[in-house]
Structures
1.
Amino acid sequence: MMPSVRCGFTEVSNHSSVDTMWDPNNSKSEKVNATKAADCGSVSVAFPLTMMITGIVGNSLALLLVYNSYRKKENKRKKSFLLCIGSLALTDLFGQLLTSPIVVSVYLSNRQWDRIDPSGKLCAFFGVCMTMFGLCPLFLASTMAVERTLAIRTPHWYSNNMRTAITKMALTSIWGCVLVFALLPIVGVGEYTLQWPGTWCFISTGDGQITGNTFFASIFAILGICSLIVTFACNAVTIKALVSRCKAKPAASQSGKQWERLTVETVIQLMGIMCVLFACWSPLLIMMLKMISTQTSSHQCKQTSSSLLQNVELQKDCNFFLTAIRLASLNQILDPWVYLLLREILLRKFCQVANAVSSCSMERNKETPISADSKQQTADMGMIQKQ
């Protein structure tokens, strides 16, 4: 039975091993890689290249919109939110700029990392970037979720105590703490290793004998999961508060209609944020915990195994891990759209369709968009508008 080869996956028969497919110094590996590149190399390069371009364009546009809005806003509460969303877009943009060109270069080098990083220092840099620009967006999403909850649940306290200086301090603390955490493997706590299929570096999950490796990988996964839980919990509390406040408004009044429209838009946006975060990050974090518990790692796909069954099972885990990290990277592209860019483009149309499906009155469907002045009639409505 002949070996079966396809993009990102290799089934091995007879005495061949995954190592011969992965080792850049093996002549057989070079021949196989050249054949694979002819069949699927263009597709492989297109994936990180498309993600890089899309991420840079989306986050740059979001930064431009945030900057223009920040200069015009006089309400300090709205400036705090704009600082958060601007920081998220800036973080995602730097994450794309620092990692994607490296991945594209490796693919263009026929997936031979040693050609561009013979010393191994670039791998450590890549791992630091992956850790920092992975955790930072999660923490920033949690910060914005907490900020929204405080603004809706305790508007008076929020108005009297929240200052842009506090927001800036919180954002700086997040960046600083995550950077210190990401640098731990550089000082000997944990390790960054080259991952399957040899195009990226990340936290090693299967080398328990390395000092602090299991601790470092576990803390990354636990911090990520905790961040998702905080974001989900705060958004759920915010949705409940918005719906309760909307029901308390007289339905026939103009204020009640405005609250209803803004509540529907905000609830849809918050649910979209939760769905995107869960879909993009839960596979990677859960897979990391699984691989930590079994003491396996994606970089072990290059190693020879005496058991063909173990090779196949490990290869499946490695390919799923690669898919999971791609989903997590996709979050950097989706962030500016779910938080900012799609709100005015799609949410109003979506709400009109939802109203029609639910047999709402024709008068409500034909209501003209709420002007900026009418949105700012009350402080509470202004807080919903900023979401």
2.
Amino acid sequence: MDDGIIDEIREQCRELLITDKQSREMMTRLLHELNQGLGKKTHDESVVKCFVTYVQDLPNGKERGKFLALDLGGTNFRVLIITLAENHFDMQSKIYAIPQSIMVGSGTSLFDHIAECLSNFMKENDVYKERLPLGFTFSFPLKQLGLTKGMLERWTKGFKCSGVVGEDVVQLLKDAIARRGDVQIDVCAILNDTTGTLMSCAWKNHNCRIGLIVGTGSNACYVEKTKNAELFDGISTKDDVLVNTEWGAFGDNGALDFVRTEYDREVDSSSINPGKQIQEKMISGMYMGELVRLALVRFTKEGLLFGGIGSDLLYRKGNFYTKYVSEIESDKKGDYMNCRDVMDELGLPHATDQDCANVRFICECVSMRAAHLVSAGIATLINKMGEPHVTVGIDGSVYRFHPHFHDLMVERISQLVTPGIKFDLMLSEDGSGRGAALVAAVACRQQ
């Protein structure tokens, strides 16, 4: 081929392309799964859980005061103090690491570590003696029973702390704070990062109705009619409630097998949660680089790349980082500077320009597929809500740093939404931090 893509590679990557017809089939299946998750009779068997968040009010811009936010969702967590004034907010924050030993240790150790960091942060910011409301972003599958009560369904993203699954994580945090006895904190709300993303965008843009994360994991929340959220516990006088779809689990029952490849099956079987979070494993930053690596290994072993000569680094699981995909696709067409840097890092200095063109093509196939999978999901939610104009608030490293992800999404969603519906995609500013404070602020507004 004149663009340097080897015919066999182009042919074998065809399975990574998602057609318009496949997207529409996916939308039909996802809508079915969403309705199963929302329904009382079908929820227990459903894979897309559609948890009720109990957040029923969006910010109106009149929220005022000082709020703490705690953001736990990956290998780091953040503590923030946010001061809301008229159309302005001031924020101080600090990132704390979670050592691997704590990620797979006991739940008590995890929450003691968090409480200690909270206490230190309050000292450093001179609010040690104040009693402050806190919004807790907890970005793992959570069955909420109220705004301040949520049971962990299962760990994801490399966590395996004992004694937390099935427990109320707000209570575990409160207990850890009480064990220290040195700070005064009111936990006003527990939320998922998708909810925070939606709230953070809604503060600026009142059309925001969907919060989407495409980062280490993938998930979305949206505004549902309360009457459709059959698991809503208690009496609601309000028409709407945010629903956390937990759509990363879409496909756990085989609904996505018709578009999965050998690379997906390999990523899944060698993960710490085989058979779980199937859609997430086709989309998110935790797995995208590994999908590319598996394709590169296959084509190298078939003699189609690198003259058939790989490297120990290429052949080792996890060595092709997702950031490499963004870097390689950021090269101008025909220029392989970033790609060559990555090849050198992987012990492949013998890669030719043609190899680089093919590596880039494989990256494009995998990232475009991720964007098209996300787009089918977003279009499903937009069509389900039926609002004339919807803003989608988005956060996460893949959306933020991949050079073409936004454009790929706009193009595919446009093809899939009901004609006449307008939508726009907006990068969220710190959903899990500012969003958590806003949920706490809105909750305090109600009291």
3.
Amino acid sequence: MDGGNQSGESGFLLLGISEIPEQQSILFWAFLSMYLVTVVGNVLIILAITSDSRLYTPMYFFLVNLSLTDLFFVTNTIPKMLVNLQSQNKAISYTGCLTQLYFLVSLVALDNLILAVMAYDRYVAICRPLHYTTAMSPKLCVSLLALCWVLSVLYGLIHTLLMTRVIFCGSRKIHYIFCEMNVLLRLACSNTQVNHLVLIVTGCLVFLVPFGFMILSYVWIIRAILRIPSASNKYKAFSTCASHLAVVSLFYGTLCMVYLQPLHTYSLKDSVATVMYAVVTPMMNPFIYSLRNKDMHWALGRLVRKPCQRLTRG
């Protein structure tokens, strides 16, 4: 596992956060619990929205797709992590590692792009309410979502194909919970300047540009809210975008903890930060979006009551 000088001859060892058996047992149950909560929470959000015709609006359309993305994201990483925590064999094949990397990179990009589109939806709803129906037509919503998918797929393909050019030699031990791009580049013994250059350029296009767009959208949203004369109407307008703002802050906050630093400084604390954006953020999203949302409360309540009513009648 440690030898060889060709990238495809052997796989890697995913050592995770800790190699101490006692800690691994605790981590297993912690990650399993978070995974189950994430799956159940996001599935409930999807079922609640798709079963209630009152929620057939652009905002909830994008929320369903955000929940789907989070489901795919955690399923790409956590099950393998759980197997590694319970098994003595922590190996992952070269192909398996690149496959995990592809979906990881693509889904993070997709999450980010959907959040940017949701910011535009909130901008139109608050700053141009009279034009909302025409500005956010079903055709445009589908087109925007399709564009998000195309860009994220291309983003993932570019970095995965570039990674196939990288030669790994020496240690194949990954002190991380999954095959992450920066960690893999640390193990490379070939020139990775092209990878870093493309990472910076595409990262600016896929992450910084949408982030800048979100900031600009919220500047206009705040300006529009401040012009509202009634305090109650101000609160009502802000509450419609507070959940999205909280999710964006959590997503970018944890992402910056990991990536806004030199590659050679990666340490254990970065594994913890990675857990935050890879596990905690998808788990928290359903709670954030349903916490103070009366429409979601009603839809979730209706979803839960249906089986109970059927059992009572039976």
4.
Amino acid sequence: MRPPPLLPPLPPLSLLSLLLLLGGRGAAAPPADSLSQLPAPRNPKVRLYNAEQVLSWEPVSLSNDTRPVVYQVQHKYRSGSTWYDLGDKGEVNCMNITTTECDFTRKGNSVFLRPEFDTFLRVRAKVDDLVSPWLTVPSFRYCRNVTVGPPENIWVTPGEGSLIIRLSSPFDVHAFSATFLYYVHYWEKAGIPQVKGPFRSTSIVLNDLKPLREYCLQVKAQLVCEEGNISRPGHLSNVSCYKTAMDAATKLQQIIVIAVGLFLFLSMLAGACFFLVLKYRGLVKYWFHSPPSIPLQIEEYLKDPAQPILEALDKDSSPKDDAWDSVSIVSFPEKEQEDVLQSILHQSPGPVQQPVG
């Protein structure tokens, strides 16, 4: 019996390859990259309302890890390729924060993100040496995507056939090249709405209104960014209604009407009183006639009859008051002449003139 043939010797290169292959089977797989073991934040939202600029997202939760999760936010413009941390300049701190929002609203007159440029944001989670992938937010431009609220502090003063409106802008735009234009929507109550504008001033006068009429109005602000010539319309303010005051012509007409009405009323009242006086003359005389009064001396005597009031009155009375010098009788019947003459002789001690017959 022949022995089995021996295998031919392997070339040196094939032997080296076999050794590497056998060694690779027994070696363990390299550890996974620690920078991708955390899940990335989800559902990012950018809130741009007036001057407010806030990025928010859902938190990253770890099932069996109680270590705190911190977040890092970066930004860049479309024209650039380098990402910068939101917090490099100290004005905004969105580096290693524990909250799930980054508030990069401008402070004072400073502008951290240029409102006329397209901006990108991205956020990731960190736990010690573990870092999640970046979550990139779609680009936005402040002047194009901001929500402009209604004007604030609206004061309306009714005038003579007009309404004077004073207001303040929704937010301050002096820090960048932007202005506000204002539009007034107004209508007479139950009337057709009208629009006046644009106005650049915060003091607006609505003229040519009807006097003593109630008007309702709303004011809207429109943001205009000069760089890029971008405009963003705002929201209307709440409806408020006011009554206009009367003008000079209406005041004069009202004075004339009141004067004529008052004159007619007084004339009618005087005529009615005169008619009633004529119709009820006796009753009026009875109402306005003063009752008879007792002389003061008699009233005192009736109160105290013991006082010699009557005797004092007799003494005070002068006899000249009851005396006469002569009496003339023009004509009397013959029989009555004798009786009258005798009566006079008995009453008067003075000379008597005989009747002329």
